[in-house]
Specification:
- Pfam families: DsbD_2.
- InterPro entries: UreH-like_TM_dom.
- Keywords: Membrane, Transmembrane, Transmembrane helix.
- The protein is an all-alpha fold.
- It has one domain.
- The protein has 10 helices and no strands.
- Helix 3 crosses helix 6 and helix 4 runs antiparallel to helix 10.
- It is globular, with a radius of gyration of 18 Å.
- 43% of the residues are buried.
Amino acid sequence: MTIDWLAALIMGLAGSGHCLAMCGGLAAAMGMNQSPARLLLYNLGRISSYAIAGLLISGALFSVTALYPNALIYLRGLAGVMMILLALYLIRWNGALIWLERLGAVLWRRIQPLTRKLPQQNRRGGQIFLAGMLWGWLPCGLVYSALAWAALSANPVQGAGFMLIFGLGTFPAMFLTGVLSHRLSHIIASKGFRWIAGLLLLGYGIATLWIAIQQLQRMVH
């Protein structure tokens, strides 16, 4: 469990540069260049959406694995593949997860109109938090990779916890860029940091996939 949550934190930190590049325009449109308190509410809303998504997908798979225990083997293999693709994505092989973001865009097209119904100026605390929650459903290969890993737990509480820690990993760059300085975001978005984190996740993904293959072989024989 500890190593899975460590992986979640690394995924969030390593993907922060991607978050800044992908969400920067949306953040500005939502009025992110405002007070630290408003920035905090936006980000808490976004992270809450990640936790809810982890809860939902892990809860759904909990029932599946209760009926078909061997499904966990395939989930482990899928999680390993997604971790490998994420690692390649972080070291700038953009094609690794673009296809997944395009699939997620179908859901986003249904959610995006809701963002226009929220007032852009003089938002209250609840409206700011809600806007952040809607932002959290923006199609993102990074988030979908984390969800694939959260699904491996097949446990609603653990899945939500994994995505919560992942979201907290993305928080420093997203929050501090708007409040203090760009120094931290520059470090996180640097090529060296991306490669180090990418290689760590690549090794973790390969090891997880290898375990799944071995389990599948034992099941077949």
